[in-house]
């Protein structure tokens, strides 16, 4: 049985960028539902011996989608911290500049990819097998691991992640979201 991982902070911890009500619904309803529905699908299809990562690539949409929903949200919560509390280090800025032209260009490209995701999905910074960093977007709860790419940073651009506070303004959500990123964690994953 998969469990809902404990949220590493309270619902109001990410205020004012992400409001407490959004966090509470996102975690206790959406994330919980992915866990519950994954457990049902695992049981119905005798997949109890599989890891969460194995299930991301399952042929059954109900398994793949809910496994992605669990993995992606665990990752998302872990990447965020108190607004403006962690700044990107010079070495991390250098790595991102080398890959995308400049740190500002990296952020701009990431926002563009998030805005360009039609419907629901995620925008990611990933590391390829050759170590090269890349920005990409996936639909629904698809996970880059399936493509052989390791997530370094990921932002949920489903409307449920921002609609109560930002309504249709996904661009504003993405711009504000940078304030929450735990760059120390990003740096450790980008290495
Ligand atoms: Mn979500």
Summarize the structure in words:
The chain has 191 residues and is mainly α. 49% of the residues lie in helices and 11% in strands. The protein has helices spanning 20-44, 52-55, 61-79, 90-100, 103-116, 163-166, 170-177, 183-190; strands at 121-127, 133-139, 150-156. The chain has a three-stranded antiparallel β-sheet with strand order 2-1-3. A hairpin with a 5-residue loop joins strand 1 (121-127) and strand 2 (133-139). The longest helix is centred in the first third of the chain and has 25 residues, at 20-44. Bound molecules: manganese (II) ion.
What's this model, at a glance?
By secondary structure, the chain is mostly helical. The chain has helices at residues 20-44, 52-55, 61-79, 90-100, 103-116, 163-166, 170-177, 183-190, and strands spanning 121-127, 133-139, 150-156.
Strand order of the largest sheet: 2-1-3
Give the radius of gyration. 16 Å
Backbone structural class: mainly alpha
Give the DSSP E fraction (strand runs of 2 or more residues).
5-15%
Distance between the terminal alpha carbons, to the nearest Å? Answer: 32 Å
The number of strands is: 3
Sequence stretches where pLDDT stays below 50 over 5 or more residues = none
Write the layout of secondary structure elements.
Blueprint: H1 20-44, H2 52-55, H3 61-79, H4 90-100, H5 103-116, E1 121-127, E2 133-139, E3 150-156, H6 163-166, H7 170-177, H8 183-190
Antiparallel strand pairs: 1-2, 1-3
Helix pairs in contact: 1-3, 4-5
